[in-house]
Molybdenum import ATP-binding protein ModC
Amino acid sequence: MMLEIDVRHRQGKFDLTVGLSISDGLTALFGPSGSGKTTLVNLVAGLIRPDRGSIAFNGEIWVDGESRRFVPPHRRRIGYVFQEARLFPHLTVRGNLRYGARFAPRHQPGEDLDRVVDLLRIGPLLDRRPALLSGGEKQRVALGRALMAKPRLLLMDEPLSALDHDLKAAILPDIERMRDEAGIPILYVSHSIEEVTRLATRVVVMDAGRTVAIGRPDEVLAVVPTATGDMKAGSFLHAVVTGHSPDEGLTFAESRAGPLFLRATDIPVGAHIRAFVPTSEVMLATVRPEGISTLNRLEGTVETVNEAGSAVMVAIDCNGERVLAEITRRSATSLGLVEGMPVHLLFKAVSIAAEGIYRTA
Ligand SMILES: Nc1ncnc2c1ncn2[C@@H]1O[C@H](COP(=O)(O)OP(=O)(O)OP(=O)(O)O)[C@@H](O)[C@H]1O
């Protein structure tokens, strides 16, 4: 499958200009609030008509400004799952699923109910009405209802953001199965690095109506837009929470790179986390520093030294964890940094923002 998007659309002061090809798998649209993710999804769904440009799916033109062609939403055969499940309250789960099948094309029967029920583990819920379901169960049924229509493309706009952490964790494997077994391409909007790293085969990072990075999650998520819309480069350290010290306002964690001291969180001991360390916060030293307040002190080997604008980006391998440090050219020269050189890394506990610490399992 290939979805080709080349559109320009204005909404008040907001201007979206996107040229993008999306293929099979789960493509995550990621970016700060107001960056245009929902607008892009609505353009693909046919809920908004772009000012200019075209959208084509497998060569079938859905929108084209020049020829004024516009295929209405119900003819595109797209499944759409929103933040809230929007189930019919008067129908049982089975009734909601069967309703979805009514939108399957005439010449093709709807998806097999048993298969969808198995895929999403909703068998025990079939005779219940939505009012008696938990948030996570409702969302699973909404996914099932979308699948029953045999969509050619599934759009999911923050489908898990209303769920608490445990419900999210329970439903993520279902979405993975949908991605891998149902074989339907998915365009998935999310704010959560945790969801995106786990689910996406490809990530499109958006900022202010533009695509600013496209690639595999591990390639592009080292550059994350902040809530203010700025781009912030950094690296993720994977660690396990080992303890808390509320009096000191600290959480302790252990990573392959060494012990980490983080701002206090309520993530339980034993949980796996990722901590986003901004490149600008990492200091480098060639000798072990003594008598300083900085709590995080790691050791590693210089992997690469690359010029990045007026600064230098140094990648350091810390026992398998890769940390990026941005330093001035002057510092890089005075330290004599070269590949293979052992270095000490320092960053303060407070240099990792609370929202830069994510639970992964
Ligand atoms: N109907 C509209 N008229 C004018 N401006 C609009 C309209 N709808 C959305 N916008 C603006 O377009 C921009 C993009 O909105 P959009 O909802 O696509 O962002 P988003 O990335 O999905 O954000 P969020 O993550 O908060 O859902 C925002 O600045 C928003 O205020």
The two ends are 32 Å apart (CA to CA). Residues 225-230 have pLDDT under 50 and may be disordered. Residues 46 and 72 are 6 Å apart (CA to CA).
